[in-house]
Amino acid sequence: MRPTRLVDRRADRAWTQNAVRLIEADGRRSADTHLLRVALPAWSRWTEPGPTGPGGAGRDGEGAREVGVDLYVKDESTHPTGSLKHRLARSLFLYALCNGWVVEGTPVIEASSGSTAVSEAYFAELIGVPFIAVMTRSTSPAKTALIERHGGRCHFVDHPGEVYAEALRLEAELGGHFIDQFTMAERATDWRGNNNIAESIFAQLAEEEHPIPTWIVVGAGTGGTSATLGRYVRYRRHDTWLAVVDPENSVFLPAYESADGTLTAETGSRIEGIGRPRVEPSFISQVIDRMIGVPDEASVATARRVSDLLGRRVGGSTGTNMWGAFSLVAEMVAARTPGSIVTLLCDSGDRYATTYFDDDWLASQSFALGPAETVLDEFLATGRWTA
N6-(pyridoxal phosphate)lysine: which positions carry it (predicted)? Predict the structure, then answer.
């Protein structure tokens, strides 16, 4: 009789358990991000008459009250790595570890335009594995510096469409793991709850005048955040609509409109972190109630204006979110529909000092912010949306 073969890999489990412990401990040390109320002008409030009894106005008609529309931003820039992608990176690493795809010494590879890679470099450093970010050469120097600060290595390609194939090539060459945010984002996050961003938003709104928001507005990069939010509001049976904003040169909106998931684009988005040249596997269009296309000039102009309103710089993707949120505020005010709207402050505008906040860079991109600034001026003065 042949001898019994035995392959025992139990030794790997101790390292994995410690890696999971390190990530979970890091999460417990990090407080939840703030939900900030944006001060809207007086036009966002109005008076509604009290109830009218069967006898008409009188005592039953008394009790008029002031109502209005409230706007909130979930400030994801306060995560340890400074962006919304910190949540995604934590989920991706836990998912890879618990599936056995990352063990001691496994090089982790990602295809990223910046912020996800910054956060993933942080977690790779935390558990002690190598990290390589495959990205286009146009990624902001501030982001590449943050990746390298956490011990990651930046591997550049010339065209946005090349990042996936290059990440897979490196995975095979190095015996590593392509963590693949664009495929894994919607499945790595527990959309039912377990401290995800949706659960956090609703918990923080619990004592507000309108605890169930009428709209939540987000952009799509991987599509993981919109998938989490859309699934969560359906699972909890909340009367909340999900709007996804999309910048120029992204195929998410055309794909949503045409129901064609095979669409691709030749050029990449100029709004870092959102917009893709292909429909990513994590983009679940069926959970989205409305999509809003946002011109790049509008994203940048709004990022600058919101930075002034909040007293600190916000990034271009936050500008995209806020342009969509402002349009919905105006819609609700015009219809005299009281309620609340929530959107995301994705990252700090300090990362874009040499791009969106640099007039010379804007000129090099042929950006003309004037028309968008006129729309914003009108909105902030009157509540009307003229875009």
Answer: 85
Distance CA 320, CA 271 (A): 8
- C-alpha distances in Å from residue 225, one per residue of 167, 247, 262, 346: 23, 16, 21, 11
Answer left, alpha or beta for residue 97, where phi above 0 means left and psi between -120 and 50 means alpha.
Answer: alpha
For the chain, which domains are there? 70-79+193-380 (3.40.50.1100), 83-184 (3.40.50.1100)
pLDDT tens per residue, range 54-73:
545 545 556 788 999 999 99
pTM: 0.89
Report how far residue 155's alpha carbon sits from residue 72's, in angstroms, rounded to the nearest whole number: 37
Non-local CB neighbours of 314 within 8 Å, separated by 6+ positions: 77, 303, 306, 307, 322, 345, 346, 347, 348, 349
Cα 252 to chain centroid, rounded? 14
Counted residue by residue, the chain has a size of: 387
